[in-house]
Prior knowledge:
Elements: E1 7-12, E2 18-25, E3 32-33, H1 56-83, H2 90-103, H3 106-120
Helix pairs in contact: 1-2, 1-3
Amino acid sequence: MREHFGCFFQMANAKGSKVLIVGNKCYRCGHEWLPTGDTPRVCPRCKSPYWDRPRKSETDSEDNEFEDVVGKVFERLEKVIKNHKDDMSEEDISYELQKMVGDLSPEEQMLLKKKLLEERK
Length: 121
């Protein structure tokens, strides 16, 4: 089941109290509408089948963040390896890498995990 994004409508019933209804909003043209049953295949206004997906450019910033996080980890790992004069075993390198990932902020760890899971698909 797909999510319905960011569109809420307030309606008054017969007694005048307000009811909040979750609606649909197109990522492409911004059109908002009330659901009429199943998840729509296209936006009723612009007819885009991608109405419920952000444009690629909106996800590019997340890719750049991911590259920054990975770059930061590998820079630190290179320094550790150089300090040990290249005599580290693969197990030592793996241990240091796990430590460095553990030192990342929770947001950076979630971003790293999300991107790695996407790559597995």
